[in-house]
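User: Run a structure prediction on this.
Assistant: Running it now.
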Amino acid sequence: MLAALDRPPPADAEEPHRLCNLGNDSPESVNALVTAIEAACGRKAQRIDTPMPMGDVPKTWADISASRKDLGYAPTVNLDEGIRRFVAWYRDYAKV
């Protein structure tokens, strides 16, 4: 966010505002996400495996090319560490 403030668009820009993806530019599975949440919370999730819904995409990930180019963004935190930090923050914030 600070990088965006340091690099405002020119006053005469055709597109003065834009959204940028911030994330990782490689796919992560739902299983990897659930496993990271389980590890951060210290308990197992109740998993119910179901077939992929019709029309769902098998893989997706953030296209961070514009963020890299315009903001110099590069991810520095992996999924496991990001989930661990989020759970720690949430527990402190919500006092749980």
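DSSP finds four helices and no strands in the chain.
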